[in-house]
Amino acid sequence: MTQAVCFNCGELKFGSFTECENCHRTPENDDDMAFSMALSDHYFSLEQLNEIGNKIKNGENIKLNDADKQRFISEMKDARKNNDLVKALEGIRQSKSQAKESKGFLKNLIALLVLIAMGVSFVSAVVALFNGNKGSGLAIMHLC
Ligand SMILES: [Zn+2]
């Protein structure tokens, strides 16, 4: 779980690359993503994040200096390739969208198919019973 500050409005949010619930912005380009990655509890304490968030809310122009920006952009690109950090940062967004998928229709369809299958096997069981009785009845008649 990553605590981060929204690069756009300064509100605290979970995950650096997630959509902000306050302003609904998602960091999309390298600059925004590098900035968002920097504004997380991986690099700052929660107190510092609150401070940075307040500054952004007050309209102060918070930016990474060019050297830091380049560092975070390259760090982010490295992390993208194979790193638990990005998985953790993006994990929240993935599980959120998965939860949104409704499987109600599929469940109903399966339940209906099960009912039909049960009905069919019930009918064929009755038919088999009837045929079996008739068969044994005939056999008894022959024995007599
Ligand atoms: Zn925001």
UniProtKB/TrEMBL annotation:
Record's keyword terms, sorted: Membrane, Transmembrane, Transmembrane helix
Residue intervals passing through the bilayer: 109-130
Protein name: Uncharacterized protein
Annotated organism of origin: Cycloclasticus zancles 78-ME
